[in-house]
């Protein structure tokens, strides 16, 4: 290992009490004399402790879940029962620690706050302060009736199909699944927001997942098609964890022209709307948009919507990534979902090309939108010149607005849209001439105060040196040398602008490096003036995907890689436990290809035979988890034809980390 | 279960048995909260916070528990609930038998929680791999051998390097953030 890493190891050994008395004394001696080392030890201790307490907290939350799932008076369980139950509670915690899932009773406010935040804050919407209530409890009270005895504690109905009626309101319905779903805590909880149905909301950021939702006003109707006025409740959740998808019971196969395909998950999500307790819908032909955060970037990834009438996924749109495996984006790739579904044939397109009037250069950062619709939504169309912005609208006559920073806004009136036709609009924008009364944003001078805030002045004619109020900003620091830090970039939260500090320009702006101040931790920051170069936002939000999709309905959606399953055969199967006894009351079976992150739901009494070995997981109605690893599975498949007899191994998971390993990627000894 | 076993189990990273023991005191505490202006949610929050206080204390090597653990939790609960009611400007009509020393302890504990919340931001950016490996180290107290095996690393050294790289990243981020924090304050 590198020296630095060895150094970290030594500190860890000291903190965890693994040093010999002699080494410990030596180390403590060094500590006495070395302030830097003390600081390092301190930070490492804090990190370790935080990890420990956070982990314990999630274990505690899942334990509490298990505890409250049973009436308090009958809590004098026998240890055996408790153990098996704790195992399952930990299964729940798998999700709890990732998604801040609420427990069976309401979750604390601080948990739900982390799920979502809205930007920019408008007065028409507010975060619902009430904690998210588990949908099972609220929408299907039958599901949580306390059982009579512990041994027959069946929160789940083993035959979900039978009571899957009643709740189904429109074509897409997941509530049916969650209502009779045993591991209620495994299914992600809804993020709930309220906003005015007529006004809509600009951007909802799902802090937990990094997805964005843009919801225009006036598109919500009730089941009779009447427009909803006033407050509408928006519920959103994502199924991203393998465990959630594995046991979501959602179909993971897809059929086209008699050919079978399997779906490899890149994320599943659900959108619902409610008004006064009743589910409401999107008006025909209207839509809202989602920037969905895709976990895996792959070819043949499709956007699908679930139709609960036939229990099938419907392919909506192919997802095309702009850059494959872009090294710049270390986090999950985000793309825009914006395809018309259903009413697609009734729509027409407007392509807008925006150029500089003098030079004729295409303005890449320009934005075009139809007057009266939310701004800043465009996508370059995969099939045409990427210099065009594509707007999709119903036939009619519209005004198109083109704008770009630094240019005069222009409205093109009476643009006609014909069904299935494309109208092309070319716009030449005039550069905005510097005006004495207008701030010229190209010459901003920022002063980094030693308080960490940013104070900026505009170097504009007639306003030289005028000071603005300190504004919210974040300064990126770069380590220079051993203890010196240099500011490299300033990001302003309010305007979203990002500025790079140009080193060479620094001295040109008089008064640079006014003074250096020694910070208590030994680092330096330099107060003074910097000239900043504006760095346009890299199109992060419109992501690495060409085109995208728009949701015209609420319901379940899936982003998945579609893989031909021609060589996968569904066989009849019998599942036995280790003692050779038939496993009854199967809740769900799934097969996992951990390398590809692929999960296939299998009907009970079935197994899918395919070339790739898979791990099989089986969950019974009374909370037992069985597994079969890849080797055993392969062996079983090679040896037998016809009806398969599969011997499963009981899995006891005693903690979140074990289950995480099991479900995600690691080798586990069964 | 005696106190020493309980403490050992809380330290072990397999806390379920200990929690089972601790939760025997929950009905009493819930009753107390509910008869003093709270509801089930308050009871849960307060009780879990108390267990967290206990857990943090237990991490200190010199921590000993002289009283019965449920008595201990109950006294923290009372103190904490009193504090919450006070913050809400509600009348407090019960007495806390805590000695002032204990109160200071609890206060410090609660402050500590606030103080180190900023670390969550860093830990959140580490990614699942790092989070898992660090959790196994510090919470589950697994050895490097076990971790390497569980996560499918080729050998212990690879796992070790990975772990310390994660830690290095966390440290660097923390140092950076610490700097901006101290600038701000």
Topology, pairings included?
The complex is a heterodimer of chains A (670) and B (185).
Chain A: H1 3-15, H2 21-33, H3 35-68, H4 79-99, H5 109-113, E1 116-119, E2 125-127, H6 135-139, H7 175-179, E3 191-196, E4 200-206, E5 211-216, E6 220-221, E7 231-239, H8 242-246, E8 253-256, E9 259-275, E10 278-282, E11 288-294, E12 301-307, E13 312-321, E14 333-337, E15 348-356, E16 367-370, E17 379-380, E18 388-393, E19 396-403, E20 410-417, E21 422-429, E22 444-448, E23 454-458, E24 466-467, E25 473-480, E26 484-492, E27 498-501, H9 503-506, E28 515-518, E29 524-535, E30 545-546, E31 550-551, E32 555-564, E33 569-576, E34 586-593, E35 598-602, E36 606-609, E37 615-620, E38 625-628, H10 630-639, E39 644-647, E40 649-650, H11 656-664
Parallel strand pairs in A: 15-21, 33-39
Antiparallel strand pairs in A: 1-4, 2-3, 3-7, 4-5, 5-11, 6-10, 7-9, 8-9, 9-10, 9-32, 11-14, 11-31, 12-13, 12-32, 13-30, 15-18, 16-19, 17-18, 19-20, 22-23, 22-29, 23-24, 25-26, 26-27, 27-29, 28-29, 33-36, 34-35, 34-37, 37-38, 38-40
Chain B: H1 3-12, H2 16-22, H3 26-34, H4 40-58, H5 69-87, H6 100-115, H7 118-125, H8 128-138, H9 144-150, H10 156-184
Helix pairs in contact in B: 1-2, 3-4, 4-5, 8-10, 9-10
């Amino acid at each position: 290992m590198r020296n630095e890493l060895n150094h970290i190891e030594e500190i860890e050994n000291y903190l965890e009490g693994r040093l010999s008395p002699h080494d410990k004394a030596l180390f403590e001696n060094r500590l006495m004399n070395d302030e830097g080392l003390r600081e390092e030890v301190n930070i490492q201790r804090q990190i370790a402790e935080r990890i420990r307490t956070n982990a314990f907290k999630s274990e505690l939350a899942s334990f509490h879940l298990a505890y409250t799932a049973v009436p308090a008076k009958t809590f004098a369980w026998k240890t055996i029962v408790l153990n098996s139950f704790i195992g399952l509670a930990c299964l729940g915690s798998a999700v709890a620690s990732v998604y801040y899932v609420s427990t069976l009773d309401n979750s604390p406010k601080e948990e739900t706050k982390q799920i979502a935040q809205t930007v920019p804050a408008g007065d028409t919407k507010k975060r619902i302060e009430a904690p998210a209530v588990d949908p099972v409890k609220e929408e299907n009270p039958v599901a949580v009736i306390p059982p009579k005895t512990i041994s027959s504690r069946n929160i789940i109905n083993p035959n979900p199909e039978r009571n899957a009626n009643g709740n189904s309101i429109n074509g897409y319905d997941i509530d049916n699944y969650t209502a009779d779903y045993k591991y209620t805590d495994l299914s992600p909880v809804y993020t709930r927001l309220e906003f005015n149905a007529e006004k809509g909301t600009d951007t909802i950021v799902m802090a937990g997942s990094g997805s964005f939702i843009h919801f225009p006003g006036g598109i919500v109707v009730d089941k009779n098609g009447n427009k909803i006025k006033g407050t509408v409740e928006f519920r959103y959740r994502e199924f991203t964890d393998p465990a959630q998808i594995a046991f979501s019971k959602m179909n993971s196969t897809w059929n086209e022209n008699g050919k079978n395909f399997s779906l490899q998950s890149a994320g599943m999500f659900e959108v619902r709307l409610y008004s006064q307790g009743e589910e409401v819908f999107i008006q025909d032909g209207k839509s809202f948009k989602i920037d969905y955060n895709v976990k895996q970037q792959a070819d043949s990834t499709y956007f699908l919507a679930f139709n609960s009438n036939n229990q099938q996924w419907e392919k909506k749109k192919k997802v095309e990534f702009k850059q494959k495996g872009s090294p710049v984006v270390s986090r999950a790739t985000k793309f825009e979902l914006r395809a018309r579904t259903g009413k697609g044939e009734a729509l027409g397109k407007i392509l807008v090309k925006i150029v500089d009037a003098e030079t004729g250069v295409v303005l890449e950062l320009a934005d075009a939108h139809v007057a009266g619709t939310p701004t800043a939504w465009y996508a370059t169309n995969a099939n045409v010149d990427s210099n065009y912005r594509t707007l999709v609208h119903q036939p009619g006559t519209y005004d198109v607005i083109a704008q770009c920073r630094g240019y005069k806004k222009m409205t093109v009136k009476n643009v006609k849209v014909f069904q299935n036709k494309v109208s092309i609009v070319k716009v030449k924008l005039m550069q905005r001439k510097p005006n004495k009364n207008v701030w010229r944003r190209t010459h901003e001078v920022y002063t980094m105060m030693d308080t960490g805030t940013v104070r900026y002045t505009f170097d504009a004619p007639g306003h030289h040196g005028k000071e603005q109020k300190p504004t919210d900003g974040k300064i990126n620091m770069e380590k220079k040398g051993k203890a010196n830090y240099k500011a490299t970039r300033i990001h302003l939260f309010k305007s979203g602008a990002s500025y790079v500090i140009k080193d060479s320009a620094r001295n040109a702006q008089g008064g640079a490096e006014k003074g250096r101040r020694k910070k208590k931790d030994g680092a330096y920051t330099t107060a003074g003036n910097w000239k900043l170069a504006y760095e346009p936002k890299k199109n992060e939000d419109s992501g690495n995907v060409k085109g995208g999709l728009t949701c015209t309905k609420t319901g379940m959606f899936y982003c998945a890689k579609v893989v031909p399953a021609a060589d996968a055969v569904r066989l009849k199967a019998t599942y036995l436990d280790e003692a050779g006894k038939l496993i009854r009351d199967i809740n769900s079976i799934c097969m996992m290809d951990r390398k590809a992150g692929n999960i296939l739901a299998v009907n009970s009494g079935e197994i899918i035979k395919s070339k790739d070995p898979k791990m099989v997981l089986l969950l019974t109605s009374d909370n037992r988890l069985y597994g079969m690893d890849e080797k055993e599975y392969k062996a079983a498949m090679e040896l037998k034809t016809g009806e398969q007899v599969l011997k499963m191994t009981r899995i006891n998971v005693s903690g979140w980390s074990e289950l995480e390993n099991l479900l995600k990627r690691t080798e586990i000894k069964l | 279960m005696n106190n020493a076993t309980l403490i050992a189990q809380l330290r072990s990273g397999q806390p379920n048995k200990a929690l089972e023991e601790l939760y025997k005191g929950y009905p009493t505490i819930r009753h107390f909260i509910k008869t003093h202006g709270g509801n089930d949610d308050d009871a849960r929050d307060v009780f879990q916070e108390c267990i967290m206080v206990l857990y943090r204390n237990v991490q200190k090597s010199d921590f000993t528990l002289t009283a019965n653990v449920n008595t201990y939790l109950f006294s923290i609960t009372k103190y904490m609930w009193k504090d919450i009611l006070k913050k809400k400007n509600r009348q407090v009509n019960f007495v806390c038998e805590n000695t002032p020393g204990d109160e200071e302890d609890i206060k410090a504990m609660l402050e500590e929680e606030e103080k180190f919340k900023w670390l969550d931001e860093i830990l959140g950016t580490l990614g699942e791999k790092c989070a898992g490996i660090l959790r196994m180290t510090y919470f589950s107290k697994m050895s490097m051998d076990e971790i390497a095996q569980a996560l499918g690393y080729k050998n212990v050294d690879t796992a070790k390097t990975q772990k310390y790289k994660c830690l290095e990243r966390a440290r660097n981020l923390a140092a950076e953030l610490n700097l901006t924090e101290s600038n701000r304050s």
